[in-house]
Write a structure and sequence with these properties.
5-stranded mixed sheet, single chain, 117 residues
């Protein structure tokens, strides 16, 4: 299931930032809001790919997607690691009507446990 405030946009998407998540309720909202401050949200998109987080990460992302038209959420049924969700995002499976719609796709881990260096 995909949730987005507005999946149909007139402008061509320049970049999609993919955020695979699992149990990231403490991190997801601050990260999404920070991305909104630095991205050109008229042409850039953020895709949260949640692996059925038991802590409610997907619900938080859904709430934000209802508010932010540049945010979409892809809900997956189970935890499968970072590879499969990233592959789906690169293939454009989150927006089947516009497969491979962006010029660039970036992926990032959402966890604060990952060292930046």
């Amino acid at each position: 299931m995909i949730v987005s405030a507005d999946n149909a946009g007139a402008a061509r998407i320049r970049v999609v930032v993919c955020l695979p998540t699992y149990d990231e309720r403490e991190n997801i909202e601050p990260l999404i809001r920070a991305l909104g401050e630095v991205l050109d949200t008229s042409t850039d998109r953020v895709l949260v790919i949640d692996d059925n987080s038991p802590d409610g990460t997907g619900d938080i992302a859904d709430r934000l997607a209802a508010e932010l038209p540049w945010l979409s959420v892809l809900h997956r049924e189970r935890k499968e690691g970072i590879g499969p969700p990233t592959s789906q995002a690169f293939a454009g499976h989150w927006q089947p009507e516009r497969s491979s719609c962006s010029r660039w796709t970036a992926t990032s881990r959402t966890t604060r446990r990952t060292s930046p260096g």
